[in-house]
User: Which sequence fits this backbone?
């Protein structure tokens, strides 16, 4: 089993910054891919915010390009999301997704989510 621990959410004013963390632990042979998603209030859908692809490149949603930066510490199996110039429309529950290779197949693990609220 794999456990994900997210942290770093909170209330911030428009234009402010936050840094989210997602630490994976447990039975990990290889982390196949990692990414951040968010679910806005009143919606049932999760949208991609940023992710690392299998090849190690990064992808960002158009709405966050130039404002958010995804990074990781492979030695710690930890992923970060630095969010700057935050806007009210960034308000959402942010969840990390980690795809883990357990030597048999790729399994998806979701974090519980951390609330980010951007409001004055």
Assistant:
């Amino acid at each position: 089993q794999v456990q994900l621990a997210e942290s770093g959410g909170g209330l911030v004013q428009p234009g402010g910054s936050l840094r989210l963390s997602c630490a994976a632990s447990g039975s990990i042979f290889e982390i196949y891919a990692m990414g951040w998603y968010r679910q806005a209030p009143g919606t049932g859908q999760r949208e991609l915010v940023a992710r690392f692809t299998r090849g190690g490149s990064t992808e960002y949603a158009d709405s966050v390009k130039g404002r958010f930066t995804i990074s990781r510490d492979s030695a710690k199996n930890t992923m970060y999301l630095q969010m700057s110039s935050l806007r009210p429309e960034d308000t959402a529950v942010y969840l990390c997704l980690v795809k883990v290779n357990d030597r048999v197949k790729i399994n998806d693990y979701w974090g519980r989510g951390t609330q980010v609220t951007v409001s004055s």
